[in-house]
Amino acid sequence: MRLPRGPSTREGAYIQIVRVLVTVSPLMYREAIALSLRQRHPDFEVRIAPPEAAKEEVKGFGPHLLVHNDTDGLDRSVLESVPCRVEVCYSDSMDAKISADGRLEEFGDISTDDLLRAADEVAARVRRA
To answer: Minimal CB count within 10 Å: which of 9, 64, 84, 99?
Structure first.
């Protein structure tokens, strides 16, 4: 499947727009994460949605990166349809797991910088594709 491309600043060239979906709870966390992502990457398309809407948003929006919590009840098939995922482990402190390209990396008490580095990697992968 070819992803939609947006115009670049160079005439005749195109870049892919990175899509990010943030579904963590509470709303304040979603908003803070989305704001951090938009500040670092104003060219990203960042959406927020409550966890109960995550399945439909993943299907309709097709994010490259999903930031969600481990208690949201998303089916494995939905999760596996997203190339990169940051799963915040509410059930076990605030640790997180980042899944990308079949790799899993675990973070104790994940920071915003860790999350933004993951987003940077996603952007690099998407733009190479």
So the answer is: 9
